Give the backbone structure.
Amino acid sequence: MEDAKTGGVTGAEVSHVPVTAPWLRTQLRSAPAAAWALALLVAVTACLAAAFPRVLDRYEDAGLRETARQAGPGRTSVQLSGAQPDVTLPEDQSEAGLRPDTLRTGYERVRTVVDRPLVVDPAQSAYGVRPSDNPAVPDTWIPRPNGLPARVYPATQSDLAGHATVRQGRLPRAAGLVTAYTREVEAAVTEATATSLHIKVGSVIHVPGEGRSPLAVRVTGILTPRDPGGAYWSTQPLLRTPTLVALPTPDRPTYWLGALLLAPDAAPALLGTDAAPVPYWQLAPDLSALHAHDLDRLKTAVASLESGPGLQLARTYTTPDTDVSTGLSDVFTSYGQLRAEVRPLTAVAGFGTGTVAVVVLLMTGALTADRRRTELALLRARGASLPGLTARLLAETAVIAVPAGALGLAVALLAVPAGRSGHAVGAALAVVLTASVALPARAALTHRTVRVHGPREDVTTVRPSRRRTVAELTLLVLASGAVEALRRSGTSGSAGNQLVSLAPVLVGVIAALVLVRVYPFLLRRLTRPAGRLRGVVAHLSLARAGRTTGSAVLPLLALLTALTTAAFGGSVLAGVSDARDHAALLSVGADARLDATAPLPAQLPGRISRLPGVHGLDEVSITYDAKPLDGLESVPLVGVAPSTYGELAGRSGLGAFPQGQLKRPARSDAVLPALASPSVASAYGTRPFLVRLPDTSAVTVRIVLVRDATPALSGADFLVVDRSGLPGTAARPTSLLVTGDRVSGAALRSAAGSAAGVTVRAEQRARYADSPLQSDVGRIYAAAVAAGAGYAVLALLLALLRAAPERAALLARLRTMGLTRAQGRRLLVLESLPQALLAAAGGALTGWATIRLLAPGVDLTSVALASAQSPLGEAHLRTDPVSLTVPALGVLVVAVGVAGVQAWWSGRRGSVRELRAGDAR
C-alpha cells in the first residue's frame, strides 16, 4: 500500500534515482483535485501580481500626460528663438536667414537634438518667423475701443494648409522673390481675428515701415483652425485668437492685437518694417510617449535643451544666439512631487495584499506537507535522502506552478496592455517560485530528522523555539522602526522607503504573532469553566480547539494581515472622501449657492425654493469692500437672517452660533452684534466700530462671536451681521444658499438664467480629483482590499477544509455514542469560533491601533484635493468604523457558515460510511 503511494518507488530509490515522469504522474493522478486547486491559485495570484505594476504604470502615465495636457502647449512646447538679423550683414544674408529653406534645414537638425525619452510630435511642431515687436497700424477701420490704434503680429508658420481650412478666399502666396524692399505681401487671418478686427477678404492693412513706406498686407483668405487646442495653434495662441491688451496705466485703456499669417516666402519683407522679425522653431512633445518611469530622464533631456549640450547643438544648427524656453521642467517637477506623495499609499496597498497572498501560498504548501506527513516520514524511514525527497517535491509542485504562472502572466499582459513587462514578469516569477518552494521547504523542515511518529504539536502544549522567539523579536524591532519613521517623516518624505510602506503589514504580523502566543493561554483559561458545564459540547469543542496543530497559525497570520490592510485602506478611502466633502462644503457653504455681483431679482428666491429637491433657502447679502474704521483695508460684510442662517451653520458644522446673540436690537440706531473671523476679531477687538459701505452709508458693529468658518464665505476674513440692520442696497440679498437632497445644477442654472452664477457642492467635490494619480488611488485601494479579503477567506477555508475529514470522522464516532445532529453542529461551530473570534477581535484592534499610530504621519491632502489652495488645509487619516467591523464580522460569518455546512453535510451521510472513510485515511 505504501508503495502505491509513492508510485512503486522505494525510499532507497528516492535517494539515487533522478526525478522521472512516473513519480510526478502518479502523484498528480493520486490527488487531481489538489493539483488543479494549486494551479488555479497560482494562476490567479500570478495574474494579479503581474497586473499590479502594469496598472500602476498605466495610471501614473495617465497622470503625467494629464498634467502636461492641463499645463497647455504654451508651457510644454520647446520654443527656440533666433536673434534679430545683424544690421552689419549684407541684406541678402539677413533675408536668407528668414527664408523657408533655411528655416526648414534648421528645424530638421534641431529635432535631432532632443534626447529620448522626450519625443517630438512632428504633426504639431512648426517653424517660421515672428515679430519681436508688435507695430501699431494706422488703419482707422480696425476697431479702437479706447481710441488706441490696433497692433498686428505679422508672422509666418510652416504647413499652414495642413492645419487650417479655408473658409473664404485662398491661402496667401508670394509673387516672385520677396526682399526687404517689397511693398505688398499677402496674408490670411483666422475667423476669430477677422470677426474681432472687422477684417474681410481683400482688406489691406498697412504695417509701418522702417525708413520706408508702410508694407501693405492684403488679406486673401479667412481660415478655421482644424485643431485649435493643439500645440500648432496653442503654443502661440495669438495666431489663432486676437486679444484685447490693457496698458498698465490707472485708467487701463485697451487696444486690439491680432495676427497676420503671411506666406512663408514673404517673411523677408518684414525686415523693412518695425516688426523686427526673428526666426523661431517650436517643438511640441508627443504626450502619448510620456512615461512616468522615465521622469528623471525626461528632466535630464529638458535640462540639456535649456542649458546643456542640447542648447549648444541647437545654436550650432541655427544661430549662435538662439534662446530656448519651455515650462516642461516645472511641469515634470510638480508631477514628481504629487507622485512622491501618492506612491507610499499605493505601496501600502500592494504590500498588504502581497503579504496575504504569500501567506496563503506558504500555507498551501504547509497544509499539503501536513496532509502527506505519514507518506514522507515513511520514505525518510526507508532511506530516502532529504535532498532527493526535496528535489522530487520541488519538481512535483513546479510542474503545476510553472504552467499556471505562465497562464496567469499571459492573462495579465492581455488584460493590461500598457505598462512595463519586466516588472510584471518578475512578479509572476516570484509567485511561481513561492508556490514551488513552499511544499519542499516545509517538508525539509519537518522531516530533516528521520522518524515515523512525530511528537504532538498541539497549540496548548507546544513550546515556541528560540529561533521563533528571535524571529518574532526581529519583526517587532522592524515594525517599531517603520512606524516611528512614518510618524516622524510622513508619507511625503519617505517615498522611496519601502520599510515605511510595510509598516501596517508589519504591525499586523506582529499582532498575529502576539495573539498566537496568547491563544493557548486563553484556551486553557476557558477550559476550566467549560468543564463545570453539564453538557459535553462546550468542553469537547475547547478540547478540539486546543488540539489544533501548529501549522494552523498561518490562517491567523493571513487573516490579521488582511484585516489590518483592509482597515488601513478603508480609512484612507474614508479620509479622502471626508476631506473632499469638507472642502466642497467650505467652498460652497451649502448644497448649492447662487451668487451675483448685484442684488438678486426679487422673484428669484421663490423660483428656486419651488424646484424639486430644494428643502431650504437662505438669502444672504455680501459686501466685499466694506471698510472698517474708514481705513484702507476692506473686510467682507455678510448680512443674514440669524434664525435660518444659524440653523444652516449648525447643520453644516461651519461656525454654529446661538441665534439670539446675532439678532438686531429693537432700536434702529443700536450697534449691530457681529460674528467675526479670528483675524478680524484680533484686528478690531470687541469695542463698537464704524463700517463704511460702498454706497457711502455706514453701520456700527460690535464683535460678540468669533468663529473659524461661516457658510457664506470661505475666506479667512469676514463679518456677519443681521441683514435687517443694514441700510439701503446693502440689505438686499446677493447670494442664495440652497440646501436639499439631490439638488440639480441644471435646474438651478435654468431658473437663475443670467441673473446669478450657480455653484453645486457635488460638482465642486468632483473637481478635487483632476488627475488619474488622485482618482485611481481609490480604485487601487479598493481592488487591493478586495483581493486581500479574498485571500484571507481562502486561507480560512483551507484551514477549515483541511480538518474536514477528521471532523467528519469525529462526528460519526460521536453519533454512534448518542450525539445528536444539533449537538454536532454546535460542536463544529464552537470548535471554529475561538480562532475566528481571535482573528476578528485581534484584526479590528490591530487595525485601530495601526491607524492611530500612523495617522500623524499620513497626509492625504495631495490624494484628496486637486489644488494645494483648497480651503481645507490638510487631510489626515482617520478611523473608519465600517472598515474595522465589517471585515471582522465577515470572518466570523465565514467560519461559522463553513462549520455549519460541514455539519449539515456530514449529517446527510451515514455514520458507517464516515467511519470507513476515516479508517481509510
Summary: The mean pLDDT is 80. DSSP finds 31 helices and 20 strands in the chain. Residues 458 and 548 are 5 Å apart (CA to CA). Residues 328-371 form the longest helix (44 residues).
